[in-house]
Amino acid sequence: MFMKKLFLIFISLIFLSCCYSTAQTTLHPIDKAEQDCISKTSDTQVMNQCSITAQKEWEKEIKKTLSELKSVLDKESYKSLINSQNSKV
User: Fold this and answer.
1) Which residues contact 70 (CB under 8 A, 6 or more apart)?
2) In whole numbers, what is the pLDDT of the chain averaged over residues?
3) In Å, how far from its chain's centre is CA 82?
4) Closest CA to 73 of 5, 3, 1
5) Model's pTM, two decimal places?
6) How many CB atoms lie within 10 A of CB 66?
7) Which among 1, 27, 49, 73 could disulfide-bond with 31, CB atoms 3.0 to 4.6 Å apart, if both were Cys?
């Protein structure tokens, strides 16, 4: 059971790190939408709004992933994960 939880954490972290990789050739749909939005304007304020929208979508994605992890991790493991994430912010 512990190995399964560890595996899920590992996969989730890989997923999140891959999404932010600069060497990535295939963009995540959130990043693609942001790039498309920015490319359609020369207005800095609109570009900023594109990025703010993308950030909000990433926050939703992270909350969704954390919720999935919470359903499979025991209370202490989940608390440890949250503390680890909060220390990186």
Assistant:
1) 78
2) 84
3) 14
4) 5
5) 0.64
6) 16
7) 27
pLDDT given for residue 26 in this prediction: 86
**Angle at the Cα of 39 (from 34 to 45), degrees rounded to 5?**
75
In the chain, what's the furthest Cα-to-Cα distance? 52
Crossing angle between the packed helical segments 44-72 and 2-19, to the nearest 10 degrees: 170
Q: What six digits make up the tokens of 70?
A: 């919470």
CA dihedral (66, 88, 16, 3) positive or negative: negative
C-alpha distances (whole Å) from 19 to each of 14, 31, 40 are 8, 8, 23
Residues in the chain: 89
Statement: residue 56 has pLDDT above 90? yes
Residue with token string 């220390």: 87
